[in-house]
Request: fold
Amino acid sequence: MAAQNATHDGRTAPRRDRGDGIRDSEIRIEQAHLDRVYHRLEEKIHEAEFLMDDAAKRGQVGTPGALAERDAQVFRAGVHLNRLNSEFEDFLFGRIDLLPGKDGERGPDGAYTSIEPADDAIRTGPDGDRAEIAETLHIGRIGVLDADYAPLVIDWRAPAAAPFYRSTPVAPGRVVRRRVIRSKGRRVLGVEDDLLRPELSATLDGGALPVVGDGALMAALGQARGHTMRDIVASIQAEQDQVIRAPAASITEVEGGPGTGKTAVALHRAAYLLYQDRRRYAGGILVVSPTPLLVAYTEGVLPSLGEEGQVAIRAVGSLVEGAEATTYDTPAVARVKGSSRMVRVLRKAARGALELPRGATAGSASSSAPAPSSAPAPAPSSESPASSSDHGQLTLDMALGAPAAAPSGDGARPGVGPGSRPGGPPERLRVVAFGARIELGADELRTIRQNVLGGTAPVNLLRPRARRLLLDALWTRSGAPRRYTDPELAAEAREGFDEDISTEDSFQDFLDAWWPELTPRSVLAAMADEKRLSRWSRRVLNPREVRQVARSLGRLGPDGQGPLSVHDVALLDELNTLLGTPARPATPRETDPLDQLTGLDELTTYADRVAPRRTRAERAERERTDYAHVIVDEAQDLTPMQWRMVGRRGRHATWTVVGDPAQSSWSDPDEAGQARDEALGSRPRRRFTLTVNYRNPAEIAELATKVLTLAMPGTPAPEAVRSTGVAPRFAPGADGDLGAAARREALRLLDEVDGTVGVVVAMNRREQARQWLTGLGDRVVALGSLEAKGLEYDATVVVSPAEIADESPAGLRVLYVALTRATQRLTVVSGNRDEPDGDGVPDLLRDSPF
Ligand SMILES: Nc1ncnc2c1ncn2[C@@H]1O[C@H](COP(=O)(O)OP(=O)(O)OP(=O)(O)O)[C@@H](O)[C@H]1O
Reply:
């Protein structure tokens, strides 16, 4: 119980911790509460275990009813156990002390529902305002009720917890004191309080309300950074909470400068949406992140909030199954590949690729590449001595019709049509039917192909139609339609004709060569041929662009299996849509009978659960291409082609889109904006702006703003919430010596901070920078400018701002990103190109003379 603090006028003023033991006594109070919570959790775990045990016994009865009941119980108990086990660590983090609610009503969790205080909550007297704390709520990662259903802990996402985040000194509502509790396992380590009504003399259980520390936010922001992001559940700020709890419907757009918490807010929103409507979001939430580094950095946040499985965090270069971007294109190539002009090029390529040599498109990339025919190899034609396989061209000579009419060996010899291009698709189809040779030549085949391609259906899905039109043409050419006057007989004969021809291996081989099943990778690889690409991109790309793109695609190799760039992946996705995947006979899936029981993965210990669940989650992910909610982080960076790719994954989704135009590395924001509008459709949008920079101290933010002013004049910078008193450092390093200077500065910063140091260089210096830092340990990381996106470090070294700014048309905005990664210290190393002044300050970072 806190002792009353009497002032000379007899008021009960808040009791501030002055090292007089209040902190310790408050920690003891919270410890007692945490002990009660753990005790209750243990009871609940026993209950869950008992339920599972009981359910297992019921299963032994063996009747269908008992089994069904067991399954239901197992499921409930499993879910319960899983949540308890995984939330057990560190899950109590907050407390609010509240005035009585206005209407005196309490919700299902036992808390007052009103956010406004009762009219008589505050008594005004000659010595100021007084009030009695009426209710104390503890906030945690999950809700826990005591045996009488009174709330011991409120889930952070429950409405009753909202005042913990929303109340501010300007609009405190019922909250008098907000406390953040730091605990590890079962031990409370510390408490930090914010007083939201500092003018009020509040009492708790008759004593003055104690206040400890200077607020939780500052304590959180000052902590050293590791290589993974932490959740901010204990210190979400009011403007961030508005976004997190915004209704799920349609589209929520969030803008804010560097460090305003956009990524953190987006991830907390995912957890909130799942809490609000788990059933709906069982359809999956997709978080699209710009780089694998940012995925790795953020992927621990959701599990720490008790959410896993339902949320897939994917780098934009890993959105297509079986494709994983491992390289970056040069800015010039990226600019072309990302542009929506590529849609027209790919449309032509998807169709044009049918004309290519067989090996150039189907290749090993195609799982359905035709197996060698089991039929005996046809004899060489008199017209063409080369065998069909020599040319990769197939013609079909077959004897059809009544046995008596079957031609002798002579009539069955295959031929290669004149004008066939070596290595090209077959230009002639020849069959022998009804004792006669029937041939479709290059022109007819071309007409048939053009007819089939007339529609917009995916190319691979048109193959059955192509097959049908070939048979139609052969049937007509055979003269058979004239021979049958009885339609029934004609139909019967036609059926036999079709079946005989189309079941022949050699006809299949012809089809495989003339209408091969195309794979996205093989078509992309085919675009590496400059002449071909120039044909497919006529009037869309200029010769220079064609050359650059073709050269970059050469990396894929002839079979298309070489390394992909981030921008290639969106092209693959587009091709996937243009080509389509033909239906395959269902392969029997290995089924684990236990899999049938939803939630069964919840039934084992954590260690047991992880491996099988991951495979199940991965499989579910593989099968999923459409999500219930899509969150796009760093949305300003998506190219038009990437927007199309992401849009396909959220056709029926609600969306949260977060970004900052001032950090965009894409050169043409208008074009990307249009693609974004197309992906999001015309649904209503809710817009929020975050205004406070929680990452950078004011000294670093101020320097970065100089670049913001150059990059996007007139754009307001977010306000830094704290300052360190340490100005950025400038260290000139002559060009030949950039590496030595960067290493020296990294070492210095490793000494000055407890956590991580990031060294950011222009993209083409990445490898070099890794060499510079060899042996400095894993607290220091070398990054290309584009890789730094979204990440943060205790300290950063930015090497040659001019090199970064000159890298691409969006270079100044990329430099702005690089300069805003540090939470404590920033050093800028400049080369000759930076034209540093006497103090080593690069040209770009000096005060403008105007
Ligand atoms: N309410 C908060 N309490 C504590 N820390 C916070 C809060 N909001 C943001 N932060 C911290 O500020 C830093 C920046 O957050 P985050 O990376 O989400 O910002 P961002 O807007 O996505 O930045 P950028 O656009 O530069 O990538 C992180 O360390 C985050 O944990």
In short: Confidence is low (pLDDT under 50) at residues 1-11, 362-395, 397-420, 587-623. The first strand starts at residue 15 and ends at 16. The domain at 237-315+626-690 is CATH 3.40.50.300 (Rossmann fold).
